[in-house]
Specification:
alpha/beta; Lyase, Ornithine Decarboxylase, Chain A, domain 1; TIM Barrel; eight-stranded parallel beta barrel; binds ligand LLP
Length: 428
Amino acid sequence: MFIRPPGFEYEKQELHCERVPLSKLADKFGTPLYVYSAATIRERYSILDRAFRAVPHTICYSVKANSNLSILRLLAGLGAGFDIVSGGELERVRVASKKAVKKVVFSGVGKTAEELRLTLRSGILLFNVESEGELELLSECALKLRKNARIALRVNPDVPAETHPYISTGLREHKFGVPISAARELCRRAAGRKYLTVAGVSLHIGSQITDVSPFGIAIERAVDLIQQLASDGHQIRFIDAGGGLGVSYNSAEQADFAGVARKYAEAIIRPLLRLKKLKPHLLLEPGRSIIAPAGAVVTRVLYEKQNGNKRFVVADAAMNDLIRPALYGAKHEITPVSLTRTDRDLLADVVGPICESGDFLARDAALSPATPGELLCIYDAGAYGMSLASNYNSRLRAAEVLVDGARTRLVRRRETMKDILQTEMACL
Ligand code: LLP
């Protein structure tokens, strides 16, 4: 049975985010609309934080999961650092919280010279270096700017993790990181560069991983490497375990996120105990596990139609708003915002207005017959929802609101056609 994420509850048959009825938000801000629960974000951050209390650690929230400025600011206020993968994400962190910049780790296989210069100047915590070429470029940029950089080599631990192939990253054949076998030599080389300090080892094995054992295996391998690096004379101050903890999209396990977080922490902390005196500071880069259940998309039904045996509910949200079902075959639960109907649930595909058969939000979802104008809620859309939204079909990207108790804040206004057209020229 589907258990709703805790920020979203029915009260008198009306779905609320915390204490605010979703229908009120839809009327005020329009649809499709992203709605986030601030209480859920705080709660999940602190559950993760507490799970790791046995070791010195920093949670560097992965900005790519949801990069809304207000969400970043909320997390910075809780003490979070940030995992970024572009100069743009650094800029977002800077706008959200200047102080948080010194808790930024910079990952990514394709950092440009410009991005390296930007981050060197801003004094981030750690560069997760993913190739020999990047090491050389970083060294060159650091030398020119006379800026020191702490680096961690992102190693590829060659650990399989059960998840969608597009978001598994820790195998030898993936583009990420350097082979563990090459790490010692690269660190030796880095240590010879004037402005670089080898300060850590980092890894990230993939995303939406629900069995925690691959995390443990990967950390075991990183710990072996850290021991070797220490014996080579490097001072390894950080171990970055990446992100990747999965959530249950039918929400059955979410009621016990504390239990999941505890198991995850155990898997990561246990191998670290082998390091005894070294005690590196643990960095974590969770995105989804903090923000996915905190967000939902509210969409309005435009039409209901029957094509042969197939029932379609055409909604005003589409794959440009939430691409996860189309791209990864992800299943997001959908329920009506108002439970006034008593009809039996029937199977339907919930689809958007975009001109592709891949434009679906759910397939064979059990939904009561929908009337045009009715509102639906798509759950667990806080992570990789809005951050992957596009303007495909020249659709305006949705508005976002953050609910905190009875208070609502518009944290991103709906795009206008003017916003979209202003970067283009109609030449010739
Ligand atoms: N650190 C690094 C280096 C990453 O590449 C990622 C995610 C994270 C941390 C955060 O992972 P998380 O804790 O959120 O699993 N768009 C896909 C997910 C892509 C994940 C990319 N990297 C989806 O919607 O499932």
